[in-house]
Design goal:
Blueprint: H1 2-12, H2 25-47, H3 51-73, H4 86-102, H5 109-140
Helix pairs in contact: 1-2, 2-3, 2-5, 3-5, 4-5
Length: 142
């Protein structure tokens, strides 16, 4: 997980290339986030003893970004709608990790992370459905 944090840190602190307004800005805005999704959610799945669930959540997260960028490529504004957009996924994962670290109420850390990942996966699937419908409606309204 340190690699994902490093990718995010590099992007936030302007190391490497310039910001979004640079020619390669869109790449540096998106690529580290997708790597972070893969590493953080996949890593949480490994910690939960359910790598399939973690990597499924990561794949769903990457699909949400793909749909947003597909809409932008078609000339529509970026769709950051949820219910489980990037900031919601990261907040849920952070809360789940903090709870897992203390494992209250007799639950195991792996169990807490498993439930967290399940909620993220279901919410992200709902986000994909919502963004897909919004994109299809926008395309049909052209």
């Amino acid at each position: 997980m340190p690699a994902a944090a490093s990718l995010q840190s590099s992007r936030r602190h302007g190391r490497g290339r310039g910001g979004k307004s640079e020619k390669d800005g869109p790449f540096w805005n998106e690529a580290p986030d997708r790597a972070a999704d893969f590493l953080l959610l996949g890593g949480a799945g490994l910690a939960a003893g359910s790598p399939g669930l973690g990597f499924a959540a990561a794949a769903l997260a990457i699909c949400t970004a793909y749909l947003r960028e597909l809409g932008r490529a078609e000339g529509f504004p970026a769709d950051f709608s949820g219910p489980m957009a990037k900031q919601h996924r990261m907040a849920a994962l952070t809360i789940g990790a903090v709870i897992a670290a203390f494992s209250p109420f007799g639950y195991t850390a792996a169990g807490v992370l498993w439930v967290t990942l399940l909620l993220i996966a279901v919410g992200t699937a709902a986000t994909i459905a919502r963004r897909s419908l919004r994109l299809l409606r926008a395309l049909e309204a052209r």
